Amino acid sequence: MEFTFGQTQEKQKITELEKALNTLQTKITSEHIALGARLFNLVKENSPEVHIEQSVFNSWLALVTERKEHTDTILHIKTALERKDQLKALSSESKKLLSQKSAEVKKLKEDFTLLVYQNHKEDFLEAIQQVPDIAKLEAEIETEKTKITGLSDKTEKATFFNKFIPTIQTFLSKGKVSTSEFKLKKLIQESAQAIFSDQDFVSLMEMSQELPDDIQEILANLKTTQETQTSISEKLKDIEAEENQNNSILESYNALSDSKKRLSELAGLIKNLDARVEALELHEGETCVHAFFDSEGLSLTDGVTHTFHQHISAIGELLREVQHTKTQIAILSKTIDLKNLEEKRKNTRSKIEKWQKQIHDLQAHIAEAEKNEQDYTKSIATMQEHIDTLGLKLPPQ
């Protein structure tokens, strides 16, 4: 069925009113729930102004308490997860710093051992001798240096052409010396822990004031670095301890292995509890309002005498708005129905008039046909008489 322009406007108006009606009904439900919650909370505070059946109140209180427990659990899990991320970052940073300081301590010990070998070998000879390979490399270096000295003497006394071979030999020996010296330096650094134990360094630091300045300086740097290393190590232990404690908290809430799943489960439980709590609050709110207003918002008493009279009156006003909106929708719907009936009546009248005209035309055709039929009948009679007359004129046989 096609709508006229007026009917289209009315349909649009109905759509707008239906949206407004849905909004009003949703608001009324929310206000009933809010009112019910206020009523339950008054009972919870032992207020004599409101009465709710004890069994109903007990059910509501149990649901609210359970919901709070789940809400607190979610809060604790989220707090623990947030702290877990923080501790993970702190642990990673501390491990990185600890690795750096360990490398610095190792380097300082190597530098100290090399310094002692280069500048104070005789004072620490017993410690150095703990690594036999040092003496072997020293012997190799000494051998090659002796060769170089001998070859140098030969070169000075030789003629130009006889200097060639000793020069080559000297070059080769110097190369061996450089290689052995590099190996020796590397060996001394790598053997720092074998030459000086951790306890040796502790003892050296305690008597550092009696040692040469260059040794004092490197030992001071080593002590400072080790103290920082120890501080970081202790901090890392504290972090790991807190991580374990934090993981225990998550485990106690069954959220350590799959926290997202656990949070989702708790959210589902809270949603279910909310629905049950709101159902009780809605019922109590509606019961309270219906003591003063009917479903259309019409007053059932001389006035609202209640602690929450303003809230109840506001809901009564909303109920009246709903009824007014429903009435507007009904009027518009009936107006459309009326216009549809008028249109149908108009169309039916047009058909009747059309058919009446057709009947009139057919009656004229019938009258004309009847006249023709009479004329044909007369003609047939006349023709029959003529035939009969002609027959009389024929001779008898």
Features:
single chain; 397 residues; mainly alpha; 84% helix
Most strands sheet: none
Mean pLDDT: 86
Total beta-strand segments: 0
Name the structural class: mainly alpha
What amount of the residues lies in strands? under 5%
Contiguous uncertain segments of 5+ residues: none
Number of helices: 10
What helical percentage do the residues reach? over 70%
User: Termini distance?
Assistant: 83 Å
Radius of gyration: 57 Å
Describe this structure in words.
With 397 residues, the chain is mainly alpha-helical. Helices cover 84% and strands 0% of the residues. The mean pLDDT is 86. α1 crosses α9, α2 runs antiparallel to α9 and α4 packs antiparallel against α5. It is elongated and about 190 Å long. The chain is built from 10 helices and no strands.
What secondary-structure arrangement, pairings included, does this model have?
Layout lengths: L4 H40 L9 H66 L5 H4 L3 H26 L6 H27 L1 H4 L2 H9 L6 H40 L6 H32 L18 H84 L5
Helix pairs in contact: 1-9, 1-10, 2-5, 2-8, 2-9, 4-5
